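Lay summary. Proteins are chains of building blocks that fold into shapes, and those shapes determine what they do. In this project we predict the shape from the chain. Here is one chain we studied, written as its sequence of building blocks.
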Amino acid sequence: MLRIGKQVGGYQYISREQYSLLEPGAKSLIDRGISLLTLLDKPEFNVYRIDEAKAEVALLWYPDLGQVPFPTLDTSFRIGKAEEIVAKRSYRSSLNPPILHRTELLLDQRHPAREACIALTELCEQLGLFDNPTRIGFQQQWLDTIRARGYRLEGFDLLPIGNVEHDSAVPHEETISTAIDRFATALSRTTLSAPVQSLLRDELLSAETTFFDYGCGRGDDVAGLVAAGIPALGWDPHFRAEVTPVASDVVNIGFVINVIESKEERDFALDRAYGLAKRVLCVAAMLGNNEPTKGRAFGDGVVTSRRTFQKYFSQAELRGYVEAVLGEEAYPAGPGVFYVFRDSDLEQQFLLRRSRGRRRLGSALQPYLVVARERHRVERESRRIRQPSIQRLKRAAPEQVLSEQTKLALDHLWDRLLDLGRIPALEETSDATELKSSFGSIKRAIDYCLEGHDAGAWKTAERRRRDDILVMLALRSFDRRRRFVKLEPRLARDLRAFFGSYAAAQAEATKLLFSMQDVSLIREACEAAALDGLGWLVPKESLQLHTNIIGRLGAVLRVYIGCATVMAGDITEFDLVKVHIASGKVTVLSYDDFEGKPVPMLMKRLKVRLRDQEMDVFEYGTAFQPTMLFRKSRYINEEYPFYAEQVAFEEALERAAMFDLDAHGPSQSTFEGVLESRRYCIDGYELSRSKQCPGLDARCGSHYRYRDVVECGSTWQANKPDNTPQVPETYNAICDLAVHILDPVIEYFGAIELTYGFAGRALTRKITRGIAPELDQHASCEVKMGDQPICDRLGAAVDFLVRDEDMREVMTWISANCHFDRMYFYGADRPLHVSIGPQNSRSKYEMVKTSASRQVPRLIKDV
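And here is the predicted shape, written in a compact code that computers can read:
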């Protein structure tokens, strides 16, 4: 396949516009999928994801492709080899949809957004935003990653999070007499600021350097560095005026000059900070984003409604200003961040390191950042629970400029609308006086609020509240509970608003309860839930999902599951619930540390038979052998903690090809035994290779011990040097070589003869000619002085012979049936060289003699 589009793992992403560039095989996969989907009301799609190894294609719809830098996935259809839809999924209601990175690879060369995407990708790479690809594939984790680096995303720009975000719109004026409150720009941070992270990333700040933060605000950067063992102090004229500024190796003046309204004072602050720097000064300021600045014009900046001053620089303007004031060269470290060096040695070291490529964030600070990210996640979750789907108003009132109090009152009103799912009564409305004063009546305020917010969120809130009431009433009927004698005021209003009366609501709930007997209705509800990513659907059989997302289901399934809870009691202590579509059963399952383990163990299963109202309980570990839950990601979704890590673990497990997981998977003893024999271990959500060196008599594969590969060949037999591998990675590679090459060859051709296997330094010193340890992979992952690998290709290699077989046929069979890196063919009756390695290049060479009787490799091209 031509290397166009975007390559991620074993997938190739191609945009609709790139289709004509594909080779016929890839086109046929796409055409097959499109022809199948034309039967489904012609769904939209603009990206194709091709998996040639599995002969599968997914048709994806990204509505904002080319309009935003990281478009979100709306719908996905995956078509399998058997020309059937393997999986379909809608992400329209997801709170954390998948996103695309590096979108320039999917855009036409002339697309107007392509250059902006390229520039943004380069900046993301510079800032280390792609360092952990496991978590950044989903919107919330991606935005968290950006924020953790000290930036925010606005359009196609990454802007540093300074002391204050953009303020609400107020009219521009030429002059202002209001006093400016500089201290009000200081934010409480949950992560280190962008300039401090840059200093760490560029190795300019460490435990051996002193740090001073000039204008430190509330001192969060200082506290974070001190917690990481870095000597740090900070001064601020409002929050830390008692601290005496001291000369330090590294001085940071971050987001200070942009909040000083006097140019003379601004120059003084910058010059004074530079005077304190012994080795380097870091300067950071807010950048504009090509939008009209918001606030009242004042001097060379604006004054916000919070009485704070902001001057927004461009990148070039900021560099020019710093160099003009200090008379020294300023080096850009990121958007809105520059270094000015006093120490020429450090300056040169920095430039040398920069020439070698981007640095990663200092490892000493990782624990602090992990805690900070978790703190931010908890805060975000609490906000989401408190304000579901809250958005900013889309426009300002045409007849007036809204005061801060009115805006806050409108925010509270929108929260209330989403909470109730209906128009609130007067006594249910906080800030009623403020709203009446601004809009004349509560009704006008509500109309304005509804017009300015997401209508879809309002409709969803209305439907969910209505469903809540129906489910409650239906389950009361199932449990034979009496009707309410007196209604709670909110419920009474709900019943009138949604149903007209209590009697009408009860009648609809009863109808819903009796509909549980309709298998087709249950099946359709399960299919709709799976399409929205709420569980794993086995067509016509069952839907399984995590108990945490039962509340996201429609009324039909909530009543179906709720009937089981009436009999079984609270099921929140269980992890999964299984809805049996046709048999009238609901099963709940409890696992050992479901959230913390990628492959948890089943501990308890409870099956409720709704038709005869009986229940069976199964305890595992005593009477029943515990089973393991493989492919846990099927039963959760992208909003679940560690979902991205879970998916990455499962992909790694599948690539390792150790198990058949299509059915129930292996038992615990088999699973753990195979992992150990293949030198894998599970560390949290990581499928890692072993870090231990086994004995040479331990088995590698089905037919050999490590000793067989280490102590083979004529040179070893003649000299018998100590050829024992010294690093665990070599044993891992030899094990893979045995499993993926030697075992399959033996099982197909019969016995083989190893003529040259692993070659450590002691053995290679005995071989006088004809070898190239830096290239041939016989040295595997062993290292030389300086801990650099002897062979950069890593992996492992072996030469072997199959007696009475044409070794060209053996080479052809391996090429068709095995994963390999390189093969060298020396002759029909000569040993064949085969290697495996991380590059998996699948290169084949034939050694041919030149006119000078030298043997040189000639590439064998596949026909």
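What the prediction tells us: The mean pLDDT is 84.
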